[in-house]
């Protein structure tokens, strides 16, 4: 058994886990603002005339010294169209290698393919922002992975890499375009995915970096997203990914009237905050109402001739339209969510690619998440202490992703969670969320279709909202209201086995995910 | 006294120096292709809402914890128009701080101003690519600096920073444009200098980074050359530099008939090498004949419809013309040499900014210098072993800069030194150069007005040149010829005191510079 300690939000978390090591309990969103850094750039022995092009993924892995127990990293810009991680892990299995920890920036249901490799001991560790589908279910309910999944936010991941907390032996970069020396970008080629923001820390700090491309171009490719100075080998192969898989339902503006109602209320809320003014900055996460807020905001900005400084995060076509309309000075893009965004980042110099570290790493000298005025967030669950869950369902099974949720909530001046009071028969506002991803101290406002609740720490906002005639309610009352409709929710039945660790962006453990009883 | 050892080219170099530490003798251009890396990204403690704007350079230095004995770094993109280093060091002196090592990427005669700070003990160490003027004379002839100047190449400098060999306490970035969070570029503002390539390693690895700008713009400035994630403080002040000082005589195509003759011969030489073909890459250093080679090359490329891949290094208007004419696919620019280059890097997406590490660091995973086909170099002196001096005059006094000389010579497929046999009464081809910056093994060809000499290691080239009817001579014969005209040169009279160490790009010591007797 692992020794357990209670962290500052009352969650019991382990202070040590075999195969992972010593862990620090969460102590508040800004309790650990600095940390010792011990990552250094990888050693190299490149000589003029050395050839980086190799014939196959296998050859690249062999030359990189792939061995049992190593950490392999991937990035998720192709989302559910990613073919590369499956392809590489098939190769790793074929080579007879075991005990690999994979460290993708996130995972989708296409990665259910990896279940067989987990069951055979090829993969024994996973570090990711999120996971879904059957893979997530088997880890959550069957405990097929020997060590807990380490859930990291999009800012926490580059922090862990750049600080040396998370060593990477071999980084695999899926490159829409590469030249023979390994300069890479995501905007050219038949399978352009746009920004390569999540892959940048990996390429910089991995001991070996392998670029896999289906579009080899003459040297030097430009723009350069990942430079040749960080790349050891280049492999040309068919079909690294399918950009059609990039677009998911989570990235379109909703037509659901309930979600639009919540979005409209959220827009009223942020207008009442008086933060929407010349030069303000804005981000909306994925999810039903979240993006729709941008839609209402857009009307207001037009009517009042307000131009924002930047919109950031994962970027979709709707934000591109706002940029082109002159409503923002620029877009800061860590990941393109649709083909229109890819087109824009290719052609518009005001649509900028940013690394995940630039986006949200809490331990560099100032990430963009810390410059946000307004952040619109979704929630799978939110509790009366404003803690938010976006990683497990109410059944306790992993089905989502940490993403930039806790990063932007902590960094923004105003963080607004938009969520319906219940989904189907499942209440969203609870006494206690199943899993805490974002601590309540980082959430300012909850907007539901029935009313708005304000974090007691933000009395200033509450007063302002009331002055504007918004119906402000206590979050406890919203919870009661939800329960009246859905009935008292049952907590998921879990064992004591830890199948997931939720790392806060600063490297501390904010919660655990337990194996559910089946 | 320092213990001395003979390095692989027979120069006696110290193995230890007080105040600098243990030193490794040069052992061949690629004897040390890897090295232990131990630099890590600096710790930070940035929180949302933290303000980086401070009122003065003094306040920024104080907040950065400036103390006796620290290392302050600077960059030389303003060349002889740089006002910032003088301004900062005046402030440091005024604060009563002593024993500072300055680490500029290079120094010009405008920095004669620092002599007073050296004489008073404010500055006790210098690491630079080069130095000139009265400052260089007083260090060389009067020994005013307590420790030897460490001469580093443009590739060796980022190597030393990224590897942790050269720690920087505070980096000072002169920024033509910055926003309040410290995103910086060199292409906007009244004093745009173009590329900020030399400053990039400093900003990334210095414990504290201070941006000093005379052009504050709204957040986020873009393009971003140095990101806010690396910047601690931003100071707005007048007149960081004068871009008119960027242009120097060394960056214009010569009209001197002798230099044009040498350039034409050099062009014949590189054509004979058969490397000038579709997709070839090219760089020409500064100096009389060097750039003129591009002029002759251009005619050939036009006539034969050849398009090169890239031209690199410091970029001038002549190369911009060639880019715009379609003769190169792109320019890779570490430093803009004139206003036309600045205009081009601002507007032309095929004119790319590159960091000094990307340009020439021998210990990353493949720098551009290692991709060069043809490199045209100048020389202050060259000896019968093809060793080249570009740092000291024949009188032994420092008057030049290492620059990218040894980096590109080592990396390119064909390195051609263009030099007249003598300048005034001073022979250029000698038995032994005063100071070795680039080892003879990296130089393939010497082109003079009297004939071409080929390094015996490149018999392939010699055969090819002779087949093409070029007048190939032995370098010893060129030397004799020079001596016949100028008389046997006298060696500079030096003491045993070491006033400069010439570090080879890989971190080993290739030569020393001795104090001259006056």
Low-confidence stretches of chain A: none
Instruction: Provide a count of the helices of chain A.
Output: 14
Rg of chain A, rounded, reads 22 Å
How far is the first residue's CA from the last residue's CA of chain A? 21 Å
Helix content class of chain A: 10-25%
> How many domains of chain A?
2
- Counting DSSP E segments of at least 2 residues, the number of strands of chain A comes to 30
- Described by the principal axes of the CA atoms, the overall outline of chain A is globular
The major sheet of chain A is characterized as: 10 strands, mixed
CATH class category of the largest domain in chain A? Alpha Beta
How much of the sequence lies in strands of chain A comes to: 15-25%
CATH architecture annotation name of the largest domain in chain A? 3-Layer(aba) Sandwich
Name the CATH superfamily assignment of the largest domain in chain A.
Glutaconate Coenzyme A-transferase
The name CATH uses for the topology of the largest domain in chain A is Glutaconate Coenzyme A-transferase
Oligomeric state of this protein: homodimer
Protein model, in words:
Chain A has 518 residues and is an alpha/beta fold. Chain A folds into two domains: 52-246, Glutaconate Coenzyme A-transferase (3-Layer(aba) Sandwich); 249-492, 3-Layer(aba) Sandwich (Glutaconate Coenzyme A-transferase). Chain A is built from 14 helices and 30 strands. In chain A, the strands form eight sheets. In chain A, strands 5-14-13-10-6-7-8-9-29-30 form a ten-stranded mixed β-sheet. Chain A has a six-stranded mixed β-sheet with strand order 15-19-22-26-27-28, sandwiched between helices. In chain A, strands 16-17-18 form a three-stranded parallel β-sheet, covered by helices on one side. In chain A, helix 7 packs across helix 8. The longest helix of chain A is centred in the middle third of the chain and has 16 residues, at 257-272. Chains A, B: GO terms for molecular function: citrate (pro-3S)-lyase activity; citrate CoA-transferase activity. Chains A, B: Its main location: cytoplasm. Chains A, B: InterPro entries: Citrate_lyase_asu (IPR006472), NagB/RpiA_transferase-like (IPR037171). Chains A, B: It comes from Tindallia californiensis. Chains A, B: It is found in: Cytoplasm.
